[in-house]
């Protein structure tokens, strides 16, 4: 057993060294070599299949080729190395082996990703936010998050999404990001707190992928987040782009903005600002004062799906339609990940607020 583990470590060490060399020197000219190395890192059939599909699209779809070339060319080299190390080496290579052991030992399937909401406090009151009616007094402490993230890593989870309300309003999270540098954190943020100093921290740490909320142009964004929100988000994007940070945009799609957030003009603006990923979530009425008139009509849902597929095939920009893309991940992903809320509730889905356990209480 020790001999096999030693062989795995030596193979991984050699592959990692080669990947770093490729990233450092002309990565855009060695993408096929990167795919080959990535397949070596994949420890399960699903991961290998995903890599093969991406390589296929890369060779057949010009927009995918342009996307990967721009990412490898314009992303900060140290940031790119850390992203590759955490996502492919830790989450896919080491993480898969750990999660497999837990499945065999405890007959428990450990998810690939964990969602956490350290706090519900926010510097904005965003119309349509799913956390709008939550108790703002409830929040997790540094010790709580430290325990959760440490246990997640022990289980083989190396990819964590940090939600809020606003994750960059929780100062102790910087200590968490630094302590768990081998974990990749994706932060969903309104973007207004991304200053030069914050952008400097992000690029220095290298293990944070910011996803900035943006529901359209200035008129649409300010109508939800308040006057000046759009310009603050634009400035935050500039700070991230200037430092070579890989980041994306998260948009809530409603009846009033669906055409704007899927327009060529909007997508081109985001690409020029340095965004690489767009994640679309359909508006869902939440809270006692929610507006059901903002929900997409059936025809708009169909058009949203069609439009995002067009963007994927024509723009160097990865677009994800959270609801309409369900067939690609086998339908509803409830139970395929954990979501830990600010009051300690453990939920199987961020959109279905039903908890059977609380991290602050003994398990039932």
TrEMBL record:
**Which parts of the sequence belong to the Radical SAM core domain?**
108-321
Give yes or no: UniProt keyword Electron transport. Answer: no
> Annotated Gene Ontology MF terms?
catalytic activity; iron-sulfur cluster binding; metal ion binding
Q: Which InterPro entries match?
A: Aldolase_TIM, rSAM, rSAM_sf
This protein's UniProt keywords: Iron, Iron-sulfur, Metal-binding, S-adenosyl-L-methionine
Identify the domain of life: Bacteria
Q: Which residues form the signal peptide?
A: none
The cross-references to CDD domains, in alphabetical order and at most eight, read: Radical_SAM
Protein name stated in the entry: Radical SAM protein
The organism of origin for this protein: Clostridium polyendosporum
């Amino acid at each position: 057993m020790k001999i096999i583990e030693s062989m795995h470590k030596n193979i991984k060490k050699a592959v990692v060294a080669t990947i770093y060399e490729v990233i450092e020197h002309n990565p855009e000219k060695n993408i096929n070599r990167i795919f080959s190395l990535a397949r070596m890192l994949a420890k399960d059939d699903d991961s290998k299949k995903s890599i093969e599909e991406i390589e296929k699209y890369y060779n057949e779809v010009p927009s995918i080729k342009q996307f990967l070339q721009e990412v490898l060319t314009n992303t900060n080299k140290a940031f790119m190395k850390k992203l590759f190390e955490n996502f492919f080496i830790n989450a896919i290579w080491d993480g898969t082996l750990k999660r497999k052991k837990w499945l065999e030992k405890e007959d428990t399937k450990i998810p690939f990703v964990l969602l956490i909401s350290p706090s519900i406090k926010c510097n904005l009151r965003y119309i349509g936010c799913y956390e709008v009616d939550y108790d703002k007094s409830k929040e997790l402490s540094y010790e709580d998050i430290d325990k959760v993230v440490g246990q997640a890593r022990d289980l083989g989870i190396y990819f964590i999404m940090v939600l809020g309300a606003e994750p960059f309003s929780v100062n102790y999270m910087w200590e968490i990001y630094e302590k768990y540098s081998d974990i990749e954190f994706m932060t969903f943020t309104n973007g207004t707190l991304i200053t030069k100093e914050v952008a400097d921290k992000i690029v220095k740490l290298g293990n944070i992928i910011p996803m900035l909320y943006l529901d359209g142009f200035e008129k649409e964004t300010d109508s939800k987040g308040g006057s000046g929100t759009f310009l603050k988000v634009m400035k935050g994007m500039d700070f991230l782009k200037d430092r070579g940070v890989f980041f994306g945009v998260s948009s809530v799609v409603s009846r009033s903005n669906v055409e704007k957030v899927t327009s060529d003009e909007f997508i081109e603006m985001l690409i020029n600002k340095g965004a690489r990923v767009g994640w679309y979530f359909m508006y869902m009425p939440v809270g006692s004062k929610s507006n059901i008139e903002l929900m997409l009509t059936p025809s708009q849902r169909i058009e949203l799906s069609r439009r995002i597929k067009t963007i994927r095939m024509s723009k160097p920009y990865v677009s994800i339609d959270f609801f309409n893309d369900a067939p690609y991940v086998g339908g509803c992903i409830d139970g395929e990940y954990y979501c830990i809320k600010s009051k300690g509730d453990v939920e199987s889905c961020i959109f279905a607020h039903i908890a059977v356990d609380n991290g602050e209480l003994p398990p039932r």
